[in-house]
Design brief:
Blueprint (H helix, E strand, L loop, with lengths): L7 E7 L6 E7 L1 E2 L5 E2 L7 E6 L5 E9 L2 H7 L8 H9 L29 H6 L12 H8 L14 H49 L1
Antiparallel strand pairs: 1-2, 3-4, 5-6
């Protein structure tokens, strides 16, 4: 149960004459046509209004099971209207002249991204900010940090085209190298074989002699 008794109310009932009284808690129901009970969900809401001495709605303001949910779902429409503000002042206890308040300036929202009927929840989500301005200066950042050296790294994922071009380049390089090296290697082997045969021939002639 909240402090204001907005979700549950105590109900006292006598069991028998002269016996003790039992205290029950009954959930509050908002929007009677929809039967939204605080026993089933906490986001039940209704239009805020004063019921005494006569019924007067307070535009933009909502009441519900939880004060926080009611506040976030409400708008600030009433605070742009002096008549609506006076309705609240007239229903406040104490001297109304001690609670003087001026309405918010409607001209302030002409160039604003917020409207009069923007909910408090939307204002909170956007941190009540009109616009975020970003000023990036790498020179000032460098002079402020004064680093000795700056490095950066990145991860480059190879794509099929890059892999294919790399393989073709490798194949072309190997082709050029092998086309030059293979003939030289064959010629070297041929020279070694020729020299070896000549040595054997000279050795055979010497033996016969």
């Amino acid at each position: 149960m909240t402090v204001y008794g907005s979700n549950y109310k105590f109900v006292a009932r006598n069991t028998r004459k002269g016996s003790s009284t039992l205290l029950y808690t009954l959930p509050t129901i908002y929007n009677g046509s929809e039967n939204c009970s605080c026993e089933l969900q906490s986001k039940c809401l209704s239009q805020a209004a004063f019921t005494w001495p006569h019924y007067v709605k307070v535009k933009g303001l909502l009441v519900g099971c939880l004060p926080s949910e009611s506040f976030l779902a409400s708008t600030l429409e009433c605070f742009f209207d002096i008549d609506c503000i006076n309705i609240i002042r007239n229903h406040m206890s104490g001297n109304i002249y001690r609670t003087r308040a001026n309405p918010l300036n409607t001209s302030s929202i002409i160039h604003s991204r917020y409207q009069i009927n923007t909910t408090v929840n939307d204002l909170v989500k956007k941190l009540f900010m009109e616009q975020w301005s970003t000023n990036i200066s790498y020179d000032r950042y460098f002079s402020q940090c004064a680093p000795n050296i700056c490095t950066y790294s990145y991860i480059d994922n190879a794509n099929p085209l890059h892999v294919a071009s790399t393989l073709l380049g490798l194949y072309g390089g190997l082709t050029v190298v092998l086309s030059w090296w293979c003939p030289q290697f064959v010629e070297l082997i041929h020279r070694i074989q020729t020299r070896y045969k000549n040595k054997r021939r000279i050795g055979s002639i010497s033996s016969v002699s």
